[in-house]
Amino acid sequence: MTSATVATVGLAGAMTDPPQAGAAPQVGPDVSSHQHPGGASINWFAVRASGQHMAMVKATESTWYVNPHFVPDSLAMRAAGLVRGTYHYADPSRSATQQAIFYATIVLGQNGILDLPPVLDLEHSGGLGPRALAAWVREFFAVLEPLTGRKTILYTYPNFWNTAMGATREFADHPLWIASYNGGAVPQMPRGGWRTWTFWQFTSSGRLPGVSTPVDLNRYNGSVAGLRAYGNAINVFGS
């Protein structure tokens, strides 16, 4: 992946773990402003028609940046019937509390129809050592999750987790979105105590109809029905 007006964010449902894995993994892209060269739009209906069931979009970064394409992409994803995820690109050199509140405010809690749980994209240490970085993540989750009512998904790389996070097992109860470009049938897993993965980013150079640039592609470790249940969207806009 790549590097406000205050609103009231309500608690909208209980925190739940992702559904059990089912059939063959489902594929979907994650995007940011880099997929909008020159302000070009993504044709989310073409993305959906190509067989994708989900998509992730960058919402925020640090304490100040909002992806200018976040709102139009989100609206078009929903109109196309895609299960939508959003992510916050972490800046551990700045306040975890402020970033959690900022993200929750921009995504308005993210617990509606077609919404996957929020995501913390953790791939830089901000100069913190493993203990301090783990404390930063702990604080971010402690602030964000009461605002969303959902258990945050954690995006990271195996090597980053094993080194910058000291291979801590503290967060193994959070769903894992792992970036692993190993070309294999399963991703390389970090030494963090996870028994399995929930999402797997398996390439950064995918191609899809409706997207004019190379794009990250991801698998969900389960069936279409499981994905839609995780996104509060069973029987919405068909299968």
UniProtKB/TrEMBL annotation:
Protein's name in the database: Glycoside hydrolase
Region Disordered: start-end pairs: 15-36
Pfam families, per database record: Glyco_hydro_25 (PF01183)
Bias kind Low complexity: ranges: 18-29
Coiled-coil stretches: none
Stored CDD domains: GH25_muramidase (cd00599)
UniProt record, GO biological process: carbohydrate catabolic process; cell wall macromolecule catabolic process; peptidoglycan catabolic process
Stated family: Belongs to the glycosyl hydrolase 25 family.
Keywords carried by this UniProt record: Glycosidase, Hydrolase
Native organism taxonomy: Bacteria, Bacillati, Actinomycetota, Actinomycetes, Mycobacteriales
InterPro entries referenced in this protein's UniProt entry, alphabetically: GH, Glyco_hydro_25, Glyco_hydro_fam25_subgr
Organism: Gordonia mangrovi
Gene3D superfamilies: Glycosidases
GO terms of molecular function: lysozyme activity
Domain of life (superkingdom): Bacteria
